[in-house]
Every structure is written in C-alpha cells, then in structure tokens.
Amino acid sequence: MTTTLNRQTMSSGLTAILRDAILNGQIAEGTQLRQDALARQYEVSRIPVREALRQLEAEGLIIGHAHRSSVVASLSLSEITEIFEIRSILEPHLLRRSLAHLSTADFDRAESVLDAYDAALDAGDMARWGELNWVFHQMLLEPAERPQTMAIVDGLRRRVDRYTRLQINLTDGARKSRLEHRAILAKARTGAVEDCATLVRDHILGAAGDLTGFLRDNYGKA
Q1: Confidence category of residue 22, pLDDT binned at 50, 70, 90
Q2: Which band of pLDDT confidence, cut at 50, 70 and 90, is reported for residue 198?
Q3: Nearest Cα to Cα of residue 53 among 6, 3, 1, 17
Q4: Which of 18, 32, 53, 165 has its CA 20 to 30 A from that of 183?
Q5: Is 133 within 8 Å of 139 (Cβ atoms)?
Q6: How far out from the chain centre does Cα 137 lie?
C-alpha cells in the first residue's frame, strides 16, 4: 500500500510539473518527451513518468507515440477557433442554469478572486493568473450542477491555455480581460441572465479572435 501511494504521489507531482511547464511555454509545442530522459531528469522510475504522460495525453496536452516517447501537442488556428466556439456555447448554457443559485456572498467571493487575478497580472505571474482565471469562471458556472459539462469545458480550456498565457503576457490583452471580467460580474449581480450570457459568449469569442490573430501575426501559425 505504501509503495502504491508513493508512486501515485510521484506521478501526481510529476504531472503537475510537466503540465505547468507546457502551459507556461517552458516546454514548447512539438518538443519530444522521452520516458527514459524524464526519469533521469526527475530521478524517478519510469512508472510515474509513464503515468504522468498518460494523464497529460488524456488532457490533450501531449500526443503519445511508440517507443516510449511523446510530443507536446500543437493546435492549428482552426482547432483553436473551434475550441473557443464550443466554449462560447457551453459556458453561457451553464451560466443560464447557475445564475439563479448565486448569492451576494458568491458574487463577493468572485470579486475577491478578480482582485487577486489583477494582482497576479500586475506581478507578471502567469501561472497564478491562469489558475485564477479559471477559478472565476468556475465560481459562476459550477452552481449549474452539470459536472460532465464542466469537465468538458475545463478540458477545452487546458488545451488552449498555453497560447492564451502567451498572448496575455506579450500584449495588452490583460487590460481587456480585466474589464470584461468586471463587466460580467457586474451584470451577474443584476440577475439579467441573457445579458450576462451574451457578455460571456462575447468574452470567449473576442478572446478567440485576439488569440488567433496574435498567433498568426507573430508566430506564423496557420
């Protein structure tokens, strides 16, 4: 039992390390990840490495290949656009179900998250920003009590998160994101369901347009 728990702990820890490195751009798309090299680098056996890579593949961050190697996944502009389009349908749907269940205290907590989010942006802490960005969306959507849909949205978010962080870090997208989040929260407080759902949809589609334009113009992504 102890050996199993230790292996699970190592696997979970390694998964988090590799996920953060991919999302932060420290491990670039197209990079080959070999089990033996990772085992040596992190001084673990191949078992937790294999389990970590299996989890990252399930999240869509890497693509597994034969001979114990994987490659960090790359998305085309069309794929990125499609992911945001799906989110623009699912998140307003969840919001319509959840808004009536949110209290003043919930809105106050969401505002505190946005305060921390702004501080992370000011400090240039993209890892923290990415976490708080999702926490804010979660707080508005989870009362819909649709865990399967939430899991789909979270999976889609993870697949494009590294590109979003890159864009936010290198452009003025942070200011736009701040203003839009505050507007969504202010509208949510009024209980205007459809108006709030529209803001969420426009926020997601606007982010898609900004991101794909940035990647095309600055990195030649097609």
Answers
A1: confident
A2: very high
A3: 17
A4: 165
A5: no
A6: 11
C-beta neighbour count of 143 within 10 angstroms? 18
- Look at the block and give the residue holding tokens 């990415």: 130
**pTM: predicted TM-score of the whole model, two decimal places:** 0.81
Sheet with 69-72, edge to edge strand ranges: 32-34, 69-72, 62-65
Which secondary-structure segment (H or E) carries 72? strand 69-72
| Amino acid (one-letter) located at 33 | L
Q: How far apart are CA 85 and CA 143, in angstroms?
A: 22
Question: What are 77-91's pLDDT values in tens digits?
Answer: 999 999 999 999 999
H-run or E-run covering 70: strand 69-72
Residue 167, classed as helix, strand or coil, is helix
In 124-192, which residue ranges form alpha helices assigned H by DSSP? 126-141, 147-170, 173-190
Whose CA is closest to 141, among 194, 207, 188, 177?
Answer: 188
